[in-house]
């Protein structure tokens, strides 16, 4: 989209030169355009640039989010499947390996607040593409590790750091291209990437594990992780305008440029501080609604991480073979697809509000954890896993829509970042607690019940609000 203020010379935004020439442009010279004063001209350019181009960018952004969720689920699920073999080779405790794997996501969460600032400074595309290179290198060097410490360092330094930025920037980029209603559908489509990852990757990783061992499996995963580079390439920003709200940049030698060059050191320092504050947006934490959304995300991430890391070991502990456990994890991916599809379409068609969708999803997710100890046959464990992932998928679909409705698209990158930071403080629970309880009791049953109870605490804000409304 191009903005002009009457006749004069302006720096040209990223608009094809042939389009400008067709709109009564007086002359075209590199990045300077002389434009005749005309309301018709402005409307014509806006209309031509706003249709098919915007829809194409939205589709590419949706594909990027799909890839990001597909690869994100691949990282943690792969480590969960390889946990047993790596634990036995290194003679480590279950809670040690589980905590190491969970710290990959903790590092991701701790660095999330700077993702928005990096995206604004260097651009989301190069940031995500460089992240893809780091993740690929991390899995490659981890496959050569000779002890637990090396595994921890390689995974957390390379994979953890690289993993931090695509998660935030891909979803924030998607929000720029759609309104609230369209975003609910596009976000749902993107999040089916996790479901397809759960369907496709467990059998593939298990096959690689059987044929090449866990080291060879990590090499195969490193090759697939290179698709993060493709994810970044698809993230084309909606507008190339300046982030500080200017519609155009002053030409060198103009009065505006000369005035800025005469600003004092103090004024420039103040402007820099204001710009840094705006990029990180800590003011978000003053809003009560931000803390409610934070609770949703933190609890959802704890539950999902615990299930992804420990479901296969839990199923093996119940007496199922490794192949059967992996197959049940694959079947659970169907539940994720169903949950995302149902919740996204229901909110898109305005059959339910995002809050109602979240409450129903949360109840299904928490109860599935609590009843897990009584699921002991293949069919019961598989059915419960499908319901659990349906609930989790619907929670994520509703949570993103709630965030966009409450905070707005322009604050989503920073909101995801701060949510990631606080999630990182709590995520070790997902890796440590189930593993420690298993080492103490020889069973994961109690751990799954406790995780389910923790998830249900997300109902508290709704209960408190309901009581306040009744009391008022």
From TrEMBL:
Region (Disordered): 243-262
Location of this chain's protein in the cell: Membrane
Membrane-traversing stretches: 57-84, 128-145, 151-170, 217-236, 290-312, 324-345, 352-371, 377-403, 415-438, 444-464
Ranges of residues in domain Major facilitator superfamily (MFS) profile: 57-469
InterPro entries: MFS, MFS_dom, MFS_trans_sf, Proton-linked_MCT
Protein name: Monocarboxylate transporter 12-like isoform X1
One Gene Ontology CC term in the entry: membrane
GO terms, molecular function: monocarboxylic acid transmembrane transporter activity
UniProt KW keywords: Membrane, Transmembrane, Transmembrane helix
Record's keyword annotation contains Transmembrane helix: yes
Organism: Acanthaster planci
Membrane topology: Multi-pass membrane protein
